[in-house]
């Protein structure tokens, strides 16, 4: 019988050399140690990654975009340009890692729920309930995409992922791993079918979930919104900071802390100027003192300490009014509410405000279980600014794009969207794109009535590929195929000049120049001088030349070589995902 091997419980480092004790172990000792480590329990998510064809393809071919010019929609050049990408979202999000790294304010996705009902494919095969690796495939599928998506968020960006109970727990662990548990903002329960599914044996499921994470919780911020319509109606006044209602600054409730005797440090004089516009805690000439005393002579308290009052007053949130009996102070209560984790508005129900709405727009039922437009609208109102960029790379029927156009029309915002979906079962070409087109241009309702368009601009792209081998031929091909990617990166879609050697595009603020031969740099410089303004210039180079010297005399021009910058991004993401 061989002697029992004694292994240390910890692995000390050999001083100075940086080597470990493992370096001196025999093969037999290492085999035993590996077996021990395999049995060790780990808190978190452990799964066997499954190779995915769309990811493996990127090792030999690089994704690019090609525009489908016939699908372009323009209602007003002054409005932002939205984007729809037809193709596998792994490839679409890979392209965005070059064009939109750190530029996306909100990611909302509604991925396949992995119910076992053959509602999604892995390597061209539907995944059903009998697939032994069903959960592993789903985790691999989501992990690939979420890791790429994280790179796209701004420093204060937020991601929301819809899910049901089939993968809720595994998704939570995956999100903790990729975005860090400390950046989880909440897990929302959304009631979408209040009557419950009547075919289920035990509980009739009536809700889904939404996991909300920040890129950095310390920088993320929600907007002050109220989802409840009845509560909203109470905020009747408005100033430059938004809607508000006035509430007496004296604490009038009959609690023990509303009386001076019980909370004396909340009883202090506030001095108000004659024009009722200025406030002070110190006595001033021409200012009158106001105390928290009711008309009946009861000494109560102010709602806040002196320090908080100063902040409110300096922020314009205290109002003084002359009323019978003297001067009354009011606080502006903003349109604000605690955002609860159970969302129960009837407008979130999927059938009436998702399925039926889509049928009305398209004239027929072509998609199962679209999300309620009101649910997406409230997510947008909570998490985005009026100029935010929003990404949905499981775009499905296009509800996210529709909701953004609708919200822009309501509040005058300039939010823009990027939608990505494949065309399986013609979802991109016969559902998502037609829906967005009709919403932008207008359409006829079920009774023939005209529904006005919301306006907006859209560019339609399909994913394509070029060889990944970094030889001269592939570099030249990638440069010529990168035009649409550069337009997206710079948000300059309007063509100014297109020749074999030079292409120029613009928006209302800047121009983009693309030079395919460095010998044509002088020609582009002449165009820049003639047109003026701010420019981003991309120049083809087989190496990684900067060309800074050629543009040293131009202060409003930034220069970058291509395609090396694109290939550098792809090398990074395809090695790590």
Automatic annotation (TrEMBL):
The keyword Acetylation does not apply. Residues 104-420 form the DNA methylase N-4/N-6 domain. The keyword Transferase applies. Signal peptide: none annotated. Transmembrane segments: none annotated. Keywords: Methyltransferase, S-adenosyl-L-methionine, Transferase. This is Site-specific DNA-methyltransferase.
């Amino acid at each position: 019988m061989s002697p029992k091997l004694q292994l240390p419980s910890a692995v000390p480092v050999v001083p100075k050399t940086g080597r470990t004790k493992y370096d001196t172990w025999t093969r037999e000792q290492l085999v035993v140690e590996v077996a021990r480590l395999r049995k060790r329990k780990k808190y978190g998510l452990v799964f066997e990654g499954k190779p995915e064809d769309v990811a493996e393809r990127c090792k030999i071919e690089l994704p690019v975009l090609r525009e489908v010019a016939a699908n372009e929609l323009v209602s007003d050049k002054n409005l932002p340009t939205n984007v729809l990408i037809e193709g596998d979202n792994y490839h679409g999000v890979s392209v965005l890692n070059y064009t939109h790294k750190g530029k996306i304010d909100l990611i909302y996705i509604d991925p396949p729920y992995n119910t076992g009902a053959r509602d999604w494919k892995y390597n061209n095969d539907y995944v059903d309930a009998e697939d032994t690796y069903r959960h592993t495939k789903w985790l691999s599928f989501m992990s690939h995409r979420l890791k790429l998506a994280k790179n796209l968020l701004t420093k204060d960006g937020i991601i929301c992922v819809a899910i049901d109970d089939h993968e809720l727990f595994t998704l939570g662990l995956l999100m903790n791993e990729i975005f860090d548990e400390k950046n989880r903002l909440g897990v929302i329960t959304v009631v979408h079918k209040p009557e419950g599914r009547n075919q289920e044996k035990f509980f009739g499921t009536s809700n889904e979930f939404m996991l909300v994470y920040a890129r950095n919780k310390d920088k993320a911020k929600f907007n002050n919104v109220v989802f409840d319509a009845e509560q909203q109606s109470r905020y009747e006044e408005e100033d430059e900071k938004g809607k508000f209602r006035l509430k007496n600054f004296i604490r009038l409730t009959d609690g023990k802390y509303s009386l001076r005797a019980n909370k004396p440090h909340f009883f202090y004089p506030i001095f108000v100027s004659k024009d009722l516009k200025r406030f002070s805690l110190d006595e001033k000439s021409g200012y009158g003192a106001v105390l928290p005393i009711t008309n009946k002579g009861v000494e109560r308290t102010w709602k806040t300490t002196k320090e908080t009052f100063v902040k409110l007053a300096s922020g314009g949130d205290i109002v003084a009014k002359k009323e019978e009996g003297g001067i009354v102070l009011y606080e502006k209560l903003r349109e604000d509410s605690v955002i609860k984790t159970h969302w129960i508005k009837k407008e979130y129900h999927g059938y009436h405000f998702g399925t039926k709405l889509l049928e009305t727009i398209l004239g027929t039922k072509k998609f199962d279980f679209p999300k309620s437009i009101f649910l997406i609208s409230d997510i947008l109102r909570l998490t985005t600014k009026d100029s935010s960029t929003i990404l949905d790379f499981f775009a499905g029927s296009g509800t996210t794009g529709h909701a953004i156009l609708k919200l822009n029309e309501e509040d005058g915002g300039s939010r823009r969207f990027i939608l990505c979906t494949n065309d399986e079962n013609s979802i991109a070409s016969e559902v998502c794109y037609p829906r967005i087109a009709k919403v932008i241009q207008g359409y006829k309702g079920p009774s023939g009535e005209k529904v006005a368009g919301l306006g907006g601009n859209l560019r339609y792209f399909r994913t394509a590929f070029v060889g990944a081998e970094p030889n001269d031929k592939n570099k030249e091909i990638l440069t010529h195929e990168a035009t649409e990617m550069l337009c997206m990166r710079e948000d300059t879609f309007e063509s100014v000049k297109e020749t074999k050697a030079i292409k120029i595009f613009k928006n209302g603020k800047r121009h983009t120049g693309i030079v395919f031969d460095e010998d044509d740099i002088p020609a582009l410089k002449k165009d820049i001088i003639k047109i003026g303004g701010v420019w981003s210039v991309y120049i083809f180079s087989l190496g990684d030349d900067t060309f800074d010297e050629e543009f040293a005399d131009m202060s409003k021009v930034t220069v970058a070589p291509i395609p090396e910058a694109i290939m550098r991004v792809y090398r990074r993401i395809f090695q790590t995902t």
